[in-house]
Amino acid sequence: MNQPVRRLSIGLFAAFFALLMAVTWIQVIHADALKADPRNPRPALSERGKERGLIVSADGTILAESIEDPDDPRSFVRVYPQGEAFAHTVGYNSFLVGSSGLEAAYNTELRSRRDLTISDLIAVILGRDLRPLSLNTTLDVELQQAAFDALDGQTGAIVAIDPITGAILASVSSPSFDPESLNGDDAAEVWDQLLVAPGGPLKDRATREVQAPGSIFKTIVTAAALDTGTAEPTTQFADPVEFQLPESTATISNFDGRVCNDGISVTLRRGFTRSCNTVFADLSIQLGAEDIGITTDAMGWNTGLDFEWTIPPAVFDTAALADDPAALGQSGIGERDVRATPLHMAMVAAAVANEGFVPSPYLVSQIFDADGAVVEATTPTSLGRAMAPASASVLAQMMEWVVTEGTGRAAAVPDVRVAGKTGTAEGAGDGPHAWFIGFAPIDNPTIAIAVLIEGGGNTGESATGGTIAAPIASELITLWLFGS
Amino acid sequence: MTRNAEAATIVAASVLGAFGVTLVNFARDGNLDAQTALTFLIFLIAFGGIHLAVRTWAPRATPLLIAPIAALSAIGFLEIYRLDPVRGALQRWWLLIGAGLAVLTLALLARYSTSVLRRYRNITLLTSLILLLLPNLPSAWAFPLRGLEVNGSRLWVALDVGFTSLQFQPAELAKLGLVAFVAAYLADHQRALREAHRSIGPIKLPEPRQLIPLLVVWGLSILILVSQRDLGASILLFAGFVLLLYAATGSTGYLVVGGLMTIVGGVGAYLAFEHVQRRVVAWITPFEHYQDEGFQVAQGLFAMGTGSLSGAGPGLGRPDLIPNASTDFIFAAVGEELGFAGSVAVLALYALVVTIGLGIAFRSRDIFRKLFAAGLTFVFAVQTFLIIGGIVRLVPLTGITLPFMSYGGSALVGNLILIALLLRISHEEAK
Predict the structure, then answer these.
(1) Marked catalytic residue, from A100, A134, A215, A365
(2) Which of A39, A328, A456, B75 satisfies CB 3.0 to 4.6 Å to A463 for a cystine?
(3) What pLDDT digit, counting tens, does each position of B214-226 carry?
(4) Which residue in A has a C-alpha nearest to residue B335's C-alpha?
(5) By the CB < 8 Å criterion, does B332 face chain A?
(6) CATH assignment at residue A455
(7) A66 catalytic per annotation
(8) Chain A, window 23-52: residues with a beta carbon less than 8 angstroms from a chain B beta carbon
(9) What are the residue ranges of helices labelled H in A250-376?
(10) Domain for residue A404, yes or no?
(11) Which backbone phi and psi does B155 adopt, to 5 degrees?
């Protein structure tokens, strides 16, 4: 009788062995996948109420901070004292809908490493500091707030960077939202409302949305022309009412539908300052897609940028435009399939300011520990040279003429040499996208800026880069240089 | 291991339970309080009491059985307490009651020996069937013993005792009685069952005459359980019966027929009961039906996966997100908070209990005691496998409790008596 019992024992132990294998699969082999499953609320819940590090502006103003929860002294709530102006850049940190911005990009540093595990205990015994690290950003509180206020609720974005180092001085997107509204138990509902809210307040238009750049793209075409020697400010172009695109029935005309100069000939200088499409369609085709592409790629286009988060690549498709002069003519004025974020365009202005060197943009200057000691400091880097110093210097002069005698006169600042370029691109909404890029002062540049107001802003159809974007640039440059 | 070493492991298990409660309190930011001392004392009294009863009434019993039981109870208790301190407190009192009844079992059997169960097997049977039928008593009548319907199943009985009403599941005790009856019946008819048989092809089966009474009893019990919608107990009883038949006769025919009946019964139940269909869906595709049927299974897997190697720590995971964590899914709660290490320790402890139970069966010379010990161990092992297997998706969930760990008074009482019976058999055979 022991024989069948023995056989059954073997069967039972096989069953227990199967349990052991299944447990091993779930808790060892497959554990990471189960942990990372978006439906598993545990990883996020374990972060809830924990202390996170500070995020501060360049001058030390607190942008994000964990304060003691008034309802539960053991836990923390995240507060964002500077509110909506910083929402996209600083980000939010919700246990329900995830995180964004710097909160997401530096989650590893910002989160408390106190997980109450055995390894924590060992770390404490070994004298390691488990308190969260903090971030010192490059953002200027006044400039950021002023930029947000200047947009005045219109859909758009502003990016200002230090043209030499690439430090981001301001990066705002409008409309915005209150990051604290995503802290609570109702975050999912708030999130759903924000997703469908007019203007898409969750979108970061400064760094994560590409748009047609329109005429500000002429800065790049001009840089390529100067670099290759194809043209200089005095070079003469034909001055038709309409430029006939080759191998096509389509034409390109100027913004006001008139000739650029006298109907016979026009210089590049006048074509640039008055932003004449006929001249730049002509010039782009003369240059060819390859030469423009070399300049865009040197500006960091058509590829990812090394940044705190993933930035959609700015697009100038050299290969597709090489055999299509008609499309190239339209692309040369920043239309058709050319796309860039305001950050990319601020980098273009910075490159002109910085003798052709393209600074690599960054937001965090230092990571410091709970005692204030610097753990890691960012060294500014450059993407390399996008144009020769001589070309940059000529282009800066041409951009100054835009502000002194051209379409960008509204960007002028008394007693300061301001360089700029306006753009008015075909928009999707009620009106065109109004752009302005520029930098100042020309002799010793300290700020490069890109302003974008989408869909005509408050002025609708009649909006242009010169009328609604340039004045904002003037205001912000004044604030930056003179503090008011 | 000696009896003294057993005493030491009981103290260790009590410390384990008390330490677990303390950690859970700390995780809640509480302080050292009476719960710690109370847990330590009750575990010490309960298992110490069984230990002393064994010393007195079953001194030759194996000293290996109480230690793993005490450890499993401590780990289970810590998770129950973590999930719901009120249930934890109740479970502690049930532990005392169960230990008391285990001591009583040992005392009574010391006087009559387990052979009394063989001699009066028909009384055991009758008692078991009455126990099984108790939940079918009317819910509203003057008599203090009433049946209760919970979640569409009639498994509960309420006994009104003046100030309060005690609720228990009589099937947990009936289970033991039915195993005793089947073991006794098979022991009495063992020779006839083995020698007189007919052949159906390659499968040899005994004379039907010998089997009919057993089949009737067994069919009746399962019918009662199915009518009460106690699916888990029906499966358990069925499996225990088939395994015992095979153990008694050695004819593989029973396993084959039992296997076929499992398939037919399983398909039949799937077609007949909507709640069985839901369980199968939850078993095969829990993540595809995350919002409804699969939620519990998926949460169990998330819990165990998040616990991974070392676990979140007592009181620091979120096993409360799993529906019915303290009853059906206590193993997943342990897996989340104590990690893979805890799960493996629990599996090892169960395997140890099963090994010791089978060892008692192996060493028994008396045929009834051999079959009884084997039957009790089979039921224990199959129950453990079914519920853990349900959580880790080896089999569909059957909604039975994990012995010694799940919250539930009747199950704890029944399982402590089961251990007392095994201890007594071990004593009687160690001559």
Answers:
(1) A215
(2) A456
(3) 888 888 888 888 7
(4) A27
(5) no
(6) 3.40.710.10
(7) no
(8) 23-28, 30-35, 37, 39-43, 45-46
(9) 268-273, 277-287, 289-298, 318-322, 325-331, 342-353
(10) yes
(11) -120, -10
